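Collaboration report, partner site 2.

Our partner group contributed sequences for two proteins of shared interest, and the home lab folded both. The records are reproduced in the order in which they were received, starting with the first partner submission.
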Amino acid sequence: MKIAILTNAYPYLPGEQFIEDEIGYWAAHDDISVTLLPALAAGKPRPVPARVAVGLDMAGTLGAGRLWFMLVALCSAIFWRELGYLRQSRKLHPRTVARALLHTSKALEQAAQLQRHAKAHGRIDVAYCYWNDTQACAAVLARETGAVRKVVSRVHGFDLYEARRDHGYMPLKRQFIAAFDAIFALSHEARSYLQRTYGAPPENIRISPLGVPLAGALARPSRAGFLHVMSVSSCLRVKRLDRMVDALRLLADRHRNIRMTWTHVGGGPLLEETMALARLKLAGLDNLDFRFTGELRHHAVKVRYLDAPVDMLVNTSESEGVPVSIMEAMSAGVPVVAPDVGGISSLVSGRCGVLLSPHPDAREIADAMDRVAFADGHDRLRANARQAIEAGFDAARNYRDFVASVVAIGASDDNPVRHRRQPAPRIQQATGR
């Protein structure tokens, strides 16, 4: 059985570090052939298991080829159906039209690349799309030509929630959402969102949480008189790190006798701006130190929980899937403060930290940090955090089950009824938010 895993860049940098925990479970199957097909391939790739191949057939087109697919997209029914949806939903704007054209051209180009790959290496039994984006749409189009038998896709956060996109527009989603053999959502909340927002057929959606390897050792708490707070995220508007800064100021001001340290792990376009904000707002607090590590490799983030005491992880994002960063902290026995957005409630509760309201202000975040750090029962929170990961987010169990599900889909008979992509009527039926 031939499995093609379509990624944005993995095994190349940047991002998609969580596939590193999953890929070994694909390599463990002797009866399947696995090829990674990244859309971007720059620099030196990360190591992959010996039984996993890497193909560059989808790694971009330059110059005349790119222009050609833009012209093809202009004549495509896919693009004109997108314009119909944008007009109907009152999202018609020069930028959304440009994105509709760009995403249509990328889907058509990537479909052609998949066809060429299949012609050279044999038909793909299952195209597994790590993101529910243009590559997933391309795989559906390639299936219609016979280059691919089955198409499955994960869906996370940026490829799910419309609020995270400019003008609240998720290109091509409504046209293709009914065409997948299976969509693997991370949580029940994500499944409900797929059905409610895009009209995804419920029978095609499966719940398959990500997972993390259980930490062999647990983080240790700070000694009396000290507190270490960590946050792990890209520096983006959606992460609301300005509220994190304000909450830390409130907390440090309340507890002048406690020596506090805040470590933020993650880069991103707003890194310098966030650092400047921290320097401005946290100045004058002689009991609070902070450091920004920038982007770290996946393994280096895990090591952070063991190298020094860590008392809590704080997440302030306004939109998430089910964050692996939270799983990794809890696996090491670190309590978590995070808002009730996306699938976070499947991870965080009062048993292992504090689940904030979806839109917490700085005072609510500071109060929650105060409870985790200084209320009775801190050791119990740490033990419960680890137990929650063991129960629901153990990589060994979750990834074995996921791989087995995808292989079973590849072994099943074709279902031509499910493969009929819904055109314009599907768009009209699923425009709600």
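Second partner submission, folded after the first:
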Amino acid sequence: MFIDKSKVFISSGKGGDGAVSFRREKYVPLGGPNGGDGGDGGSIIFKVDTGITTLLDFKYKRKFIAEAGENGGGSKCYGKAGENLIIRVPMGTIIREEVSNKIVVDLSHKDQEFVLLRGGKGGKGNAKFATPTRQAPHYAEPGMPGEEMSVVLELKLLADVGLLGFPNVGKSTLLSMTTKAKPKIANYHFTTIKPNLGVVAVEGIDAFVMADIPGIIEGAAEGVGLGLQFLKHIERTRLLVHIVDLSGVEGRDPFEDFVKINEELKKYSVKLWDRPQIVVANKTDLVYDDDVFEDFKKKVQELGFDIVLKMSAAMRNGVDEVIKEAARMLKNIPIKELEISEDERYIQEEKRFTYTIAIEKGEENNTYVIEGSFVDRLLSAVNIHDADSLRYFHKVLKNKGIMDELREMGIKDEDVVRLNNFEFEYLL
């Protein structure tokens, strides 16, 4: 089974909470704070593994969560960092953010790694909050939450040469004769229902990778048949070998077939249509008039395609010439990265803790309701029953600019400020 697209949910690990702890030993009844920091959460890392050729593993497992960091302990013991989760994918995998469908990264190099989600930072223990004037803080910092995202993994095969053509024109036969690949071959349409790759290693030429991909039909650019699945796999190829059935035994005109497929390429991508092509007239053993090939060659060259060769893959006539010509042309075609425009690229925003302020009007006093991720994190970090902790709480509100914002909104003495379930009266 060939799986070339899969959706998965990923989440990095939460950072461990800092500890609230005090040194308590014999003869040291009032020792200082010694709460340790929490460990950082594990990150989500994607890594290219050349031993994997499909996304089949992601059909059965669709959720990946990295390990959380351990909480801090007493005696300034730091929590252990969570293990990074390494997700192995085939070379040629594109990762898209599901909602926007924009590309996060293109993993197209051997052993390439990409940190997609970083683990949450561990919280500070109360030992880090001690100062000459605040010697016994009864609060610590919670760990930062991990990040999460739904992504779509999309595999686009990496091949130097892509075999192009209608079904049953001889693409699989050519691949089987020139590589160790074993594609399924039979005399009916769509024998090839999954891409096959093989390395062409012939004496006297540089080895290259050739891909036999499911046949294209009219309407492929609009998704008819296996169209889009086919077209996206030849986006990366540097050279196209376009095979046509010159014999016309199935009642099709070889030149019309050639034109139709190039029209589909152009509809899908002008860059793909403009890629160099070797045009190969196959099944010449079934053609008894040389004028048929010459007439086909003339028409194709008039369209601007100079390299037109004849071949009988079944009889192995002309196969070596096609392979040698492909190797020659590849020497002059540079390897290019997949082009990703700014509109297609996903920009991951830095995680920020935010808040909103709403006013609830009262008969005598108003209530200013502050909500958001900033509030949740702040309240989890303080002990509202401890005077030092409350001073730290008010200091954070001031440094964040919330107190200034409340004054700009017209807050008055004895108005109420509410953060989740905690309320206090405002005093100038």
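Feedback sent to the partner group on the second submission included the following. The chain is about 20% helix and 20% strand. The domain at 1-155 is CATH 2.70.210.12 (Spo0b-associated Gtp-binding Protein; Chain: A,).
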